[in-house]
Amino acid sequence: MYNTPNQFLELQKTQIDAIQAFGATVFQAAEKLAQLNVNTSREMLQGSADAAHSLLAAKDPQEATAIAGTLAQPNAEKLANYSRGAYSIASTASSEMAKIFEAQLSEGQRKLTELIDAAAKSAPAGSEQAIGMLKNALTVAGSAFDAVTKAARQASETAESNISAAVEAAAEVVKPKVKKV
User: Fold this and answer.
1) What angle do CA 93, 94, 100 make, to 5 degrees?
2) The pLDDT of residue 60 is above 50
């Protein structure tokens, strides 16, 4: 398939670079998610401590009840923020991995085209039709992949929009309502 050891080494280097890029993307996402978890846990713990202090400072049961009624809202907002952050991390990592995959696929398709062209130069007479069919199949496969990739991007954008809208709607639900007197 590859005429020289240098071509084979080039292919291996490209594949190792892609694996390294995938790994770096995964580790960066894991690192960001771990930091998000630590920060959210710290905020929730501090919020719980503050809530306990507020409840203990209440002078009567009515005040304790009023304080208790306001405690759920900050935690719901923290949960909504956590959900936004986690989704953003996952979405970014997914996008980066898709770019790497698409670049690898494009490079593979380019190399396969070069291989078919090299084979065509040394092919026996009468094989032009077979080589033409191979090139056509490669073009059709590339077009199909492009269509699938476009549909996947649109689905991802739609899902991202829906998730964002759901998180915003949930945040609106937990916002305290101002009572009119």
Assistant:
1) 90
2) yes
